[in-house]
Amino acid sequence: ADQVILQTKATTFIQKLLKMQAVTDDEDLAYQDTSASRKTSVIGSAARPTWMKNLEANVKQWLGIIPQEDIPVLKRTVENIKDPLYRFFEREVTIGRNLLKT
User: Fold this and answer.
1) What is the pLDDT of residues 39-65, one digit of tens each?
2) Which of 18, 78, 83, 102 is deepest in the core (most CB within 10 A)?
3) What is residue 48's predicted lDDT score, i.e. its pLDDT?
4) Are 89 and 80 in contact (CB under 8 A)?
């Protein structure tokens, strides 16, 4: 019984994977240019599925949101260190600063 369930899950996974990798978009193929100079660029863009194009647009938008300037370090005081919320927030700010440096 367990093997049947695993086989069903594997089959479903493979089907979803094949749907994701499908490169034939009807709307993209309708706009292909037959000239030799633009053929490779149009086919190259048509070879990407729609979800991949949407992902690219989202990633560009996310990269635009990331702050370019450095996040200031939080100031430690005796009262602040006693506060667990401050310690949590300081840890998060430090992690964010380190991520932005990479």
Assistant:
1) 444 455 557 788 899 999 999 999 999
2) 83
3) 79
4) no
